[in-house]
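Whiteboard transcription, Tuesday session. T.W. wrote the structure tokens on the left side:
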């Protein structure tokens, strides 16, 4: 966004005309619009630790001759944390930061800190981040073709307008505020540590940090550790073995309850680990799953119910999920006891769905022919864009038969004209 604004062009123009050509084959000239749409729909992924971030960081480094742009992403932590649930799905911002930067003629930008799903508060102004435009009351995508830093991409409203903030947006409980501030500050240190992390990856071992924590707090008992922090035992076991990468949010909650910074945790700082202890007052903010009471499986009742569903021709067929919700048992449990009946119910439901789809396609094809005919009679040429605009369900154009009908109808109209 800063590059586009500096060169007085839109995000769309910058990506399509400059960046796309240097990223990869899937963003070639014939697919520029599709490539741009994919990127814009995954705006937060540009700053994450996946392939998209790697490709665009590399491209921008080549185009700008700046060799450290990957530090603006989480690529340095690629081998440490899972990419799941790292960032929010839409833009968040501190209006006080925006307004302050504008008043003092400083560079207006979007800190990486604001993107994190766990960042709720600005550590500079001790105010909650905003995620709804005060003007149009909509969420704002991280990146759009017409994005400008500090402005809503939908209504062009200046997001640093502090006078538009509501009282409810500012007030928070003392406990919630304290936790949000702690997380924002430790994530800020985590972001600042990115350049160092790239050179210390061989010394950073998240599984070793977890095993050391389990040993200190629960004498190596993973099950007890998992119960304390409200985490699945098998998941924690996989993290400790290094078989899977933990989510950043889960490690943050553990660090908060142990009062150890995220940077100290991942870098195995021995002084910090020597002072580690659980703070019980912070555990209440963590989710605790309660074990469900056992439920008697009434096999006789279900054995009567399933055939009645299978033989019912008066109502629309039900799928296994709907049946399991009606009976109050998991569909896997029902399938294990009655595999033949469940397979028959699934076949019936799939046949029903297939017939419905074919009927929708047939109706859409008929509608296309009628639209083309109406446009010809009114003297308007039936272009694909115009016919698509008049369709009641444009999503049906994904079916090959519908697209062929549209092309043939337009071709026929052209010949007759």
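and on the right, the sequence the group agreed on:
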């Amino acid at each position: 966004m800063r590059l586009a604004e500096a060169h007085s062009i839109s995000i769309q123009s910058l990506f399509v005309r400059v960046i796309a050509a240097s990223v990869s084959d899937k963003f070639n000239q014939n697919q520029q619009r599709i490539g741009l749409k994919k990127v814009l729909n995954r705006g937060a992924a540009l700053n994450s630790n996946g392939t998209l971030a790697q490709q665009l960081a590399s491209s921008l480094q080549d185009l700008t001759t700046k060799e450290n742009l990957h530090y603006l992403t989480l690529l340095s932590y690629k081998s440490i944390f899972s990419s799941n649930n790292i960032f929010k799905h839409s833009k968040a911002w501190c209006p006080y930061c925006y307004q302050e930067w504008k008043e003092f003629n400083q560079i207006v930008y979007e800190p990486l800190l604001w993107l994190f799903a766990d960042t709720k508060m600005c550590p500079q102004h001790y105010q909650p981040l905003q995620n709804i435009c005060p003007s149009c009351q909509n969420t704002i995508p991280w990146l759009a073709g017409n994005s400008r830093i500090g402005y809503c991409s939908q209504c062009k409203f200046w997001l640093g307008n502090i006078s538009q903030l509501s009282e409810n947006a500012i007030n928070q409980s003392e406990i919630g505020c304290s936790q949000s501030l702690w997380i924002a500050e430790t994530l800020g240190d985590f972001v600042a540590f990115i350049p160092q992390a790239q050179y210390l990856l061989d010394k950073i071992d998240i599984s070793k940090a977890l095993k050391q924590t389990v040993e200190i707090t629960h004498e190596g008992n993973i099950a007890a550790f998992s119960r304390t922090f409200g985490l699945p035992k098998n998941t924690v076991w996989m993290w400790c073995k290094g078989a899977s990468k933990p989510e950043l949010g889960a490690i943050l909650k553990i660090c908060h309850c142990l009062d150890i910074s995220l940077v100290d945790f991942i870098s195995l700082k021995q002084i910090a680990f020597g002072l580690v202890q659980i703070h019980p007052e912070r555990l209440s903010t963590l989710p605790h799953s309660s074990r469900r009471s056992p439920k008697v499986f009434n096999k006789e009742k279900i054995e009567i119910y399933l055939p009645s569903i299978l033989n019912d021709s008066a109502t629309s067929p039900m799928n296994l999920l709907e049946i399991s919700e009606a009976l109050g048992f998991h569909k896997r449990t029902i399938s294990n006891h009655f595999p033949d009946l469940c397979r028959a119910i699934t076949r019936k439901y799939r046949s029903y769905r297939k017939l419905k789809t074919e009927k929708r396609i047939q109706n859409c094809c008929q509608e296309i022919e009628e639209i083309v005919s109406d446009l010809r009679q009114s003297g308007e040429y039936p272009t694909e864009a115009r016919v698509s605009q008049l369709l009641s369900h444009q999503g049906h154009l994904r079916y090959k038969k519908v697209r062929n009908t549209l092309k043939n109808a337009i071709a026929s109209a052209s010949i007759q004209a």
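Someone added at the bottom: Confidence is low (pLDDT under 50) at residues 26-34, 167-171.
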